[in-house]
Amino acid sequence: MHIPDGFIPFWQCAIYYIILIVALYFASKWARNNLDEKRIPLLAVLAAGIFAIMSMNMPIPFGTSGHMVGGALVAIIFCAPEAAVLVFTVVLLIQALIFGDGGITALGANVLNMAIIGGFVGLYTFKGLKGKIGIYASAGIGAWLATVIAALACAIEMAIAGTFPLNVGIASMVTYHIFIGIIEAVLTVIVIMALEKFRPDLLAWNKNKIAEGGE
C-alpha cells in the first residue's frame, strides 16, 4: 500500500501534504493532552510492531504493495486517530528515507490512507459495533474494514493521478487487501486481548471508564 515517488504528480502530493500538516497539528494537540509516562512506551512499541509488519510486503500487479497496516489497532487502543497519525508519520518517514519503501513526495498520501482513513474507519467501526457484538469482534471487523478502505483510497488516488485506471486499481489493490485484512483483523484482536488481560489500564476505553467511576 506504500505509494512510491513518481506515482502521483507533485501538485497532488502538495495537497496530501497540506492534509498531513493539518492532521499533525491536531495530533500534536492530542499528544500534549493525552500521552503520559505509561502510554508513551506503548505508542513506541506499537510503532516498532507496525514498522515490522509493514516491512513484510508483497508486490501487487498494477498496484504498489500489499501488507498489513495497523492504523486501526493504534486508533482503537488510544481511542484516537491522532495516535495513528503520529505513529505512521514517523514509521513511513523512516521507511522512505532509509529503506526506500514508499516515497518522500508521497508521504502525505501514505499517511492519509493508512493513518487518517484507516484510523478513522477502524475506530468508528469499533465504536459503532462494540456495544452490539463486543470488543473483540468489533475490533476485528474495524481492522479488516480499515485495511480494505485504505487500499481503496490508494487505488482512487492513483487513478486520479493517472497512474492506472480505477478498475485495475480496485482489482489489484482491494482484492489483495480483502485477504490481507483477515490477517490484520486476527492480529488486532490478539493484541487487544493481550492488553485487556495483562494491562487493561492502557486501553483508552478502560481509562475513560475508570475516570467516570466505573469498574
Give the SSE layout:
Layout: H1 10-34, H2 39-55, E1 58-59, E2 65-66, H3 71-78, H4 81-98, H5 107-133, H6 135-160, H7 166-198, H8 204-211
Antiparallel strand pairs: 1-2
Keywords: Cell membrane, Membrane, Transmembrane, Transmembrane helix, Transport
Subcellular location: Cell membrane
Protein name: Cobalamin biosynthesis protein CbiM1
Q: What can be said about this structure in brief?
A:
This protein is an all-alpha fold and 215 residues long.
Q: For this entry, what is the oligomeric state of its chains?
A: single chain
Query: Can you write the helix and strand succession as a string?
Result: HHEEHHHHHH
The general outline is globular
Taking the alpha carbons of the first and last residues, their distance comes to 40 Å
Q: Regarding CATH, which class?
A: Mainly Alpha
- How many distinct domains? 1
CATH architectural grouping: Orthogonal Bundle
**Radius of gyration, rounded?**
17 Å
Structural class based on helices, strands and sheet pairing: mainly alpha
Q: Please bin the fraction of helical residues.
A: over 70%
Biggest sheet descriptor:
2 strands, antiparallel
How many helices? The count is: 8
Uncertain runs are 210-215
